[in-house]
Write a structure and sequence with these properties.
Blueprint (H helix, E strand, L loop, with lengths): L4 H5 L5 H26 L4 H16 L7 H9 L13 H20 L2 H24 L5 H5 L2 H18 L6 H14 L11
Helix pairs in contact: 2-3, 2-5, 2-6, 2-8, 2-9, 4-5, 5-6, 6-8
Amino acid sequence: MLQNPIHLRLEKLQSWQHVTFMACLCERMYPNYAMFCQQTEFGNGQLYRRILDLVWETLTVKDAKVNFDSQLEKFEDAIPSADDFDIYGVYPAIDACVALSDLLHALLGGETLEKAIEVSKTSITSVCMLEMTQSGREMTDEELKDNPAVEQEWDIQWEIFRLLADCEERDVDLIKGLRTDLREAGISNIGINFQQ
């Protein structure tokens, strides 16, 4: 379920491509967190949005300077704990937060490849967990591999990967295009529709 050839292929990319890949996946998980915040009045969907926008800015604006240390500190208080909520939405919301935290740690520590693989796994885990919850049972890796929702998630990750892998150097128009497409779609990796 969690191993995919994409994880090996990510090694071929440069760090700006890893960061863009992670930003794209966080963009797809953002509605899960925003919707959870709206439903529970916990956390701050706008904070997630702002931090993610700052990440996009560093990818598209030359010499953009952002203090991601302080962003990470602010964000840590906005991460829900599964023990405090008995709604299912807390789990994909936590996954979205873990992914954004990994992205910030990658920007701070420079381990972009490891974190890109983690964010990829986090996103697919959200999808797998929902599918198992809805079917009311554990599924084998084989079953999950053939599950349409899981297949779709891998397809989208591969699509983002291929667009990035085709770039010789940082392509700001491509990065902006990815951001716009994902934001305008407003659909999360688990099908939550949250229009901003």
